[in-house]
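Thread title: Can someone regenerate the structure for this chain?

I was given the following input by a collaborator and told the matching structure tokens would be attached. They weren't. Posting the sequence so someone can regenerate them.
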Amino acid sequence: MHAPGTLLRTSSTIPPSLVTKIFEIQGKFDTESDCHKLLYAPHPLPLKYREGRVYKIEFSGEESALDAFVNKVLVDSISQEARIGGQPVHQKAAFVLEYGMKGAALDLEKEMILNYFRSMSSPGFEITRLTLRTRIYVFGEGAEPAQFVRDIVNPAIHTHEVLKAAA
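Best answer:
Regenerated them for you:
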């Protein structure tokens, strides 16, 4: 018998602590490229861009196990590097366009990552939510996001956000 007013909890009734970790993966050897590759109509300014992939993972469990999973499954150690934290990497960008699939849209990369995770016997962590986004950094004097949003983002399947880089 327990004293009145004491609350007894077992580990199964205490919700696990959820943590969110954001990884941005970019090519180690990538350089700025001509923005005309991204647009349907030529842009009047000589703008450049770089691209990265952002993985926002909400999880519970061992952080070191999640890091190992990301480095094994999402990063090619020879040609890519992962940065942690979610802040845009290239601070000199005129703006950053970040976009990804809407929740109801089929995201094959996300599904394959989750299927691989589910096939693991004892990963040491549990993924509660996984969000994938593409981040495009646009460089150049006078760069404005309107044409990029119009030509890259499909409003039927994408969500997007335009971030201003710090000066």
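The chain has one domain: 19-163.
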